[in-house]
Amino acid sequence: MAANNPFPLSRDALLGCYRRMRTIREFEDRLHIDFGRGDIPGFVHLYAGEEAAAVGIMSHLGDGDRIASTHRGHGHCIAKGVDVGAMMKEIYGRKGGSCEGKGGSMHIADLSKGMMGANGILGAGAPLVCGAALAAKFRGKGEIAICFVGDGASNQGTFLESLNLAAIWNLPALFVVENNGYAESTSRDYATAVNSYVDRASGFGLPGVVVDGTDFFAVHEAAGEIIRRAREGGGPSLLECKMVRFHGHFEGDAQTYRANGELEDLRANHDCLKKLAAQLTSAGVASAAELADIDRQVLALIEQAVVDAKAAPLPSAADLLTDVYVKY
What we know:
This protein is of the alpha/beta class and 328 residues long. It has a single domain (11-261, 278-308), classed as Thiamin diphosphate (ThDP)-binding fold, Pyr/PP domains (Rossmann fold, 3-Layer(aba) Sandwich), CATH 3.40.50. Helix content is 45%, strand content 9%. It contains twelve helices and seven strands. The strands form two sheets. A five-stranded parallel β-sheet has the order 1-2-3-7-6, with helices on both faces. A two-stranded antiparallel sheet has the order 4-5. Helix 2 (51-58) packs parallel to helix 9 (216-231). The radius of gyration is 19 Å and the shape is globular.
């Protein structure tokens, strides 16, 4: 660790985390533009504003660790190491995509990276993670499984049942509630009886932690302790990340449920990427010019991914008959 680095990660690791967060932001902002142009088929839900949670957690993981995502899954994919070019092709519905262009935005998966898939069904990843965590427990290699849900999905029966099952079986699992304040357009305060999702965890005998999801270092520290505990046989936990999203629930969402000036305040004062950049530059870990250079490289990466996606062929009729059954 450099003498002027006060953080628990090396300079290279920190710049790598910044790069991954910036990649998520630029990927999502580009989709926002291209979807508005009518270039992208299907539907998209954007993760911009929530990058610190995905990267802060996933920086502790390897390819052998499994995650299950949500309908808002692009950020989780990128943080887990899924190829950006293959993701873009998938979202554009082209061959060479992560699922050969047949899944689209809400079904991106890459098992080689431990990414079990985005999911359009609220809370559906929780029971999948119980299975993945059970398999990891039997393998005995110290691997874990992580389920991401939004604050709306946390009210689903599948999620609550999975907390109970994970506790009974003492699974190496982590349940992450990404609390951005809204379940689609419904305020969390209106639709959830408890003040904190940690209260839900305690009802099933799980330890729970609440963290500022806009602070990369807060997420990284809390996740590191929980993940270490799970790897060592300490069982499941719940992590609530209080965070913000910069786009609507879906593309085309007018966000009339937000207060006047709310979104402007979030972008100006609660941007996790600005916060990380300020932390790195103020500590002397990186200069503003170095971060700007990373930004330029990421923009070029995203632009090339779009060019390649638009040039890739569409799936053929014969492709409908592939990837239907598992091959052993």
